[in-house]
Amino acid sequence: MGKALLGNEEEQEKAKEECSELLKILDNELKDKEFFVGDKIGFVDIAANVLAFWMGIIEEASGVILVTNKKFPNYYAWRDNYINCSQVKEYLPSKDELFSHFQSRFHSASTTK
Asked: Which pTM does this prediction carry?
């Protein structure tokens, strides 16, 4: 995902295509399910936390959007369900603090290119 955000234009496009292929797999796995194992959060959902919470913040901070409701509807719905689940939400770090952190990192990386 790093090159999709910080690489040169050619590297970004290639990395975005690779990420899209992997996200298609996840999107297909989530078809007709609220979470990876059905209607309850399981180990795979917890392991995919980086995709649910962190990736969304990184997309917002960098301005590079990889996930849309139109392109990956099942994954998009899962991400929303997971992040807003009361059992998960109370343990997530502050979105505002993480956003500020990543936004400053992307800004400093773009000014050093």
From this structure: 0.75
